[in-house]
Design goal:
With 345 residues, this protein is of the alpha/beta class. It has 13 helices and 12 strands. It comes from Streptomyces griseoluteus.
């Protein structure tokens, strides 16, 4: 079955990913839902341990079935991936969906040339000859801005700079023209200049290939540059979602307020102190009841009846915008105005 243009290219419904460990069950993702349209970029943001990477590794089917329980629906272009066979997922990976990992050096084999590694992906999914695969590798290196690609195709990963290795990883991910690209913090280890180049490259390639992108990061500044829509995760759940401009201009959840308050501003006074979120992310072995952010939330006491500690807030989505918080709209506007006036966000 193939979706129509009116349907989301990727649709996640009530996804739960739990890991069995000696200490108990880790609820890494606990009831996550979102859609991604064709040719759009969804930025998923949150602290380490929020469930960002687990979500996307699950989409790709990169989990240990002996220790992982997956519930919910993962529908890609009309096809259900949860419960799909290993053979089906292997065929889709690299061909219809691909991933760029954070550490390119660790992800590339040190024993094979860049061209061989890109070419093998192409050969596996197309049955191309070695000669055709080499030509395709050179073409992809040229597309991602590697100078002298016909010569650099025979280099090993250690002969590339960090930025060039990341470009090579992007070339490998896009060699079979996948329609879904998952980028897991691909610019974290790079300097600011190279980071900007990689971001521009992804946007250019998206326009060329029409690819849908999921961009995982902890940095809202990166989200502001590349994303169309934003999904904020905390403790394995989505706490806020919406178009990038709306989430960054008028955030609705206290956790998003905290993320914005902990970021330095390039256009504001240099002496304004940052406001880090107090405490630590929750244990997913024994997560807090109610709203998982409530132990760290400065506004939980403003909600009557201790609801934040006892009742899980529902994620109410209207026109692609929503949040999971017990604060009323009036309280939210008041607190947001106070935070803005005090330069806390």
């Amino acid at each position: 079955m193939t979706s129509t243009d009116s349907q989301p290219f990727l649709s996640i419904k009530d996804l739960k990913v739990h890991f069995s460990t000696e200490d108990g069950t880790v609820k890494a993702v606990d009831g996550l839902s979102f859609d991604l349209a064709r040719g759009r970029t969804l930025g998923i943001v949150g602290e380490s341990g929020s469930g960002k990477s687990v979500t996307n590794l699950t989409i790709l089917g990169l989990h240990n079935p002996d220790t992982t329980t997956i519930e919910g629906s993962i529908e890609l272009d009309g096809d259900e991936l949860n419960g799909a066979s290993d053979r089906t997922l292997e065929k889709l990976r690299g061909n219809k969906m691909a991933m760029i990992f954070q550490d390119a050096l660790a992800s590339l084999s040190p024993y094979h040339t860049i061209g061989t590694q890109i070419g093998e992906v192409y050969r596996k999914h197309t049955g191309a000859s070695k000669k055709a695969a080499r030509e395709r590798a050179i073409e992809m290196l040229r597309r991602v801005g590697i100078p002298q690609p016909d010569r650099r195709v025979d280099n090993y990963p250690h002969e590339f700079s960090g930025g060039m290795r990341q470009r090579a990883m992007i070339a490998m991910a896009l060699v079979c023209d996948p329609k879904l690209l998952i980028a897991d913090e691909p610019t974290t280890a790079l300097d600011v200049t190279v980071q900007a180049q990689i971001m521009d490259l992804l946007k250019d390639l998206q326009q060329e290939f029409g690819t849908s992108i999921i961009f995982i990061t902890h940095d809202l500044g990166v989200i502001a540059d590349i994303a169309d829509d934003v999904l904020v995760m905390y403790g394995g759940r989505c706490v806020e979602r919406g178009p990038k401009e709306e989430v960054l201009r008028s955030p609705q959840h206290p956790y998003t307020w905290g993320l914005l308050g902990s970021m330095p501003s390039l256009d504001g006074p240099v002496d304004v102190p940052l406001n880090p979120i107090p405490g630590s992310p929750p244990s997913l072995l024994n997560p807090p009841t109610g709203c998982r952010f409530h132990p760290r939330c400065a506004f939980a006491s403003e909600v009557e009846g201790n609801r934040c500690a006892t009742e899980r807030p529902l994620l109410q989505i209207e026109d692609g915008r929503g949040n999971a918080c017990h604060l009323s709209d009036g309280q939210r506007r008041e607190f947001l105005a106070d935070l803005a006036a005090s330069k806390a966000i």
